[in-house]
Design a protein that fits this description.
By secondary structure, the chain is mostly helical. Helix content is 85%, strand content 0%. The chain contains four helices and no strands. The chain has helices at residues 2-10, 13-34, 39-45, 51-84.
Length: 85
């Protein structure tokens, strides 16, 4: 909740929306590059010595977590706005 609150307080709506779009694009690129739909599926396909793949998997998981936080922050902002309007 603290990450959501901090993002909401320090980022305007347009920046949040732009960030969400960027992260969704990045996730789609991982899906296309590895022909999988999740980092967990990628982990099952990777060999132990595929350093680039494991690095991408880590970045993908981080991006997915950041996307969830950004989406929650945007939803919280929208809900707060509607409640005070």
């Amino acid at each position: 909740m603290s990450r959501i609150r901090e993002l909401r307080e320090n980022t305007d709506r347009d920046e949040l929306v732009a960030g969400i779009k960027r992260m969704k694009t990045e996730i789609r690129q991982y899906e296309d590059r590895y022909e999988v739909i999740s980092p967990e599926e990628l982990a099952q396909k990777l060999e132990a010595d595929e350093t680039d793949g494991w690095d991408d998997l880590s970045r993908w998981k981080t991006t997915r977590q950041n996307l969830a936080v950004a989406q929650a922050s945007l939803a919280y902002s929208e809900a707060s706005h509607h409640l005070t309007a």
